[in-house]
Amino acid sequence: MLTRRSFVRTLGALMLSGVASGAYAVGIEPVGRPRVARYHLLPNKWPAGLKLRLVILADLHACRPWMPPRRIGDICAQANALDGDMILLLGDFLSGMRMGGNWVTSDEWAVELARLAAPLGVHAVMGNHDWIDDPDAMIAGMGPTIVHKALSSINVPVYENQAARFEKDGKGFWLAGLADQIGPREGLDDLPGTLAQVTDEAPVILMAHEPDVFPAVPDRVSVTLSGHTHGGQIRLFGYSPIVPSRYRNRYAYGHVVEDDRNLIVSGGLGCSIAPIRFGSPPEIVVVELG
Fold first, then answer.
1. pLDDT tens, position by position, 141-191
2. Is the peptide bond before 215 cis (omega within 30 degrees of 0)?
């Protein structure tokens, strides 16, 4: 059976061998200035008068030469300039690279992420590579991981099955975040337990690194925000040959609406397994609610 890993490895070898399109997929698209993907939503039961702008960064995969500290700093400056009420970090800070490249240390990327600023703060969830590429945490089967420690050092809260209430212009809303659905083992995420912390009728925004939880998300949640897929990393005519999701292209990329429930899947910023992007350029996501 063709897996994402074997497909990307094979395609990466072909491209790196000198195919012209490979030069673009390896040397241009993965390292370009992120585009800004904008979504405007008015979810059901959204409170009149509440307008929120969320700026979303997913899947940094800090790694030289494709995502070095200087580039992370530039991305942070670009994100700040988008004037979000909140900046949300959807996991996979660690490299995940298996074909070349050198690690960027957590101290290096955390210093750059410390530049991020928004009136209602910067908030994060963990990604699968934040566990997989932390051998000590994988062996222990628990945190704190390298990423937990790095984000704590710059005062960015990591939501692991937690929900917190915020207000803007006198209107309340909840931000919730799931523990990673893959992690050192399945079952770390607890959607019912997370939503049980919501104590009023204010809308809920859910951060979940992998989009696969979406079929279980109730319509009580106004929008679910995910990364992980990188848009398939290779995307042709709206189709991705390999998507790291049990639902394949159903949740590969973009705005998905099912039963009046909203999911937005970011194409992300970095690369995993191999330094290849083709038809799925790096992006910062802006979600306007209300």
1. 888 999 999 999 999 999 999 999 999 999 999 999 999 999 898 889 999
2. no
